[in-house]
Design goal:
The protein is built from eight helices and 13 strands. By secondary structure, it is an alpha+beta fold. The strands form two sheets. It has an eight-stranded antiparallel β-barrel. Helix 1 packs across helix 5. The longest helix has 21 residues. The radius of gyration is 36 Å and the shape is elongated. It comes from Riemerella columbipharyngis. Keywords: Cell outer membrane, Membrane, Signal. This is OmpA-OmpF porin, OOP family. One of its GO terms (molecular function) is calcium ion binding.
Length: 480
């Protein structure tokens, strides 16, 4: 349990560490009132350190349907449904990733009626209500509350819930037996009688970082028996039903425009998902966390404050003190040691001297050009390899030999796939060298697939740590 708590605490600090950048001005100089310990910077909580947008504007339109009333929009007696229209505009503020507030203005017109068809005369009542409303809505992002944190794919759908109160102004008109419509009720806003409530749900789709599409269904409780146009609550029309509130559904489709200078709105940010993704990154060892106050000049993953070897060669593995590993303690670091586990003299590349010449000629491996490694299932040249490849250009151009450029993979995957992957890696290196001045006829790309492991004990890959499997994903040179 203690280990899990410590791991989550470290992951929570990762967004700060990943956003830190080198600067000639120390953090304590820039923020004198903050505390700094070791190489970690503690940033103050203010507007300058915010990483998400939290304001947006929403607009939309739809169809209101009066159903809980004496006069209704659907099933009103004559078999004909009548539809009104509605629109809304809101200013939205996200308080957290799961809760926000909306200041919303609604405008629309409902249409409703009642027709007595028993005598087939078609006589009845037709009404319409023009309304304006201002309300405050709470916005709950259920997706950020309930989403599974082990789903690593970026999500584009979000379920929201809304509820709030406001003030409603309306004019209700009524026509009887096909006659002219007359104004029956007029309610002004910001009075006790004009108070209303509404609640509902919305489904959002993230079109882009700046734009969302949302379908919304709201239920509006007017608290007023005269909203449907029936006139006085004791009139003949309003005596048809016992309810004393004319309520309606409002189905809308709208757009949300997210404001601000940042890439992401906080309502589309899931902190737990972010924490677990950072833990996955650490487990895969695919990213360097930059937390060094005074930098890491040799880029070996050990801050200069504690690094005992500040000029570690690129690609060399180091211990906790930043010293390049020499497993067999023969004076040749593992990066250049052709026999990593067997001691040998420096002049023989760390391998023991053979008393007899080998039965068959052995091709010379160019050791100072090793360490060209690749990410999993990739043939892309890494930035960390470019120093080695630039040295290779000088070495090959100063040599009289031609060279085989040999690509290899780790043991994961099928033999045919890895064969093609190793050929792509070899060709990537050849293309880089030719582009930088080596004649193409001096290089020959060869792929050996998964049959040329630097560490044969890594078959299957689960038997070895990540750094050994990465060392198997490589390209090296042999002089012809």
């Amino acid at each position: 349990m203690k280990l899990q708590i410590a791991t989550l605490a470290f992951a929570l600090s990762l967004p700060l560490a990943l956003s830190a950048q080198d600067s000639t001005v120390s953090h304590s100089d820039k923020y004198p009132n903050t505390f700094s310990s070791g190489s970690a910077d503690i940033h103050p909580f203010n507007n300058d350190t915010r990483r998400f947008n939290d304001w947006s504007v929403s607009i939309g339109g739809g169809v209101p349907l009066v159903q809980s009333a004496d006069l209704t929009s659907i099933k009103n007696g004559n078999g004909k449904n009548v539809f009104g229209y509605s629109s809304y505009l809101s200013l939205d503020k996200a308080i957290t990733h799961a809760f926000g507030l909306k200041l919303q203005y609604d405008r629309g017109e409902t249409r409703q009626g009642f027709y007595n068809t028993k005598d087939h005369s078609g006589r009845g009542y037709a009404a319409r209500t023009q309304y304006d409303a201002i309300s405050i809505l709470g916005d709950v992002n259920f997706s950020n509350l309930l989403r599974r944190v082990d789903n690593k794919s970026p999500y584009r759908w979000a379920l929201h819930g809304y509820a709030g109160v406001g003030t409603l102004a309306y004019r209700a008109y009524l026509a009887h037996n096909g006659g002219a419509q007359k104004l029956m009720t007029e309610i002004k806003p910001f009075t006790f009688r004009s108070m209303f409530g509404q609640a509902g749900t919305g489904l959002k789709y993230k079109i882009s970082n700046r734009l969302d599409l949302e379908g919304r269904l709201m239920y509006v409780v007017t608290g007023d028996d005269e909203f449907d146009g029936g006139g006085d609550q004791y009139s003949v029309v309003n005596e048809r039903e016992e309810q004393n509130s004319d309520d309606f559904f409002n189905a809308t489709l709208g757009l949300t425009f997210k404001l601000g200078k940042h890439e992401t709105n906080v309502m589309w940010y899931d902190p737990l998902q972010n924490i677990y993704s950072k833990l996955d990154i650490l487990a895969d060892n695919t990213v360097d966390v930059k937390v060094c106050k005074n930098g890491d000049k040799d880029d070996d993953g050990v801050c200069d404050d504690w690094d005992r070897q500040l000029d570690t060669p690129t690609g060399a593995r180091v211990d906790g003190a930043g010293v390049a590993l020499d497993t067999d303690l023969d004076g040749v670091i593992d990066l250049y040691d052709q026999c990593v586990t067997v001691p040998g003299p420096v002049e023989n590349h760390g391998c023991p001297v053979q008393s007899e010449a080998p039965a068959s000629p052995v091709k010379e491996t160019v050791m100072n050009l090793e360490g060209i490694e690749f990410d999993f299932d990739s043939s892309k040249i890494l930035t960390s390899n470019k120093t080695i490849l630039d040295n290779a250009v000088n070495y090959i151009n100063s040599s009289t030999s031609n060279f085989n450029v040999i690509g290899a993979t780790d043991d994961a995957g099928s033999v045919p796939y890895n064969q093609k992957l190793s050929e792509r890696r070899a060709n990537s290196v050849v293309n880089y060298l030719v582009k930088n001045g080596v004649k193409a006829d001096r290089l020959h790309a060869i792929g050996k697939g998964k049959n040329d492991l630097k560490y044969p004990e890594c078959r299957p890959v689960s038997k070895c740590p990540a750094w050994k499997n990465r060392a198997n994903r490589r390209v090296y040179f042999e002089a012809k």
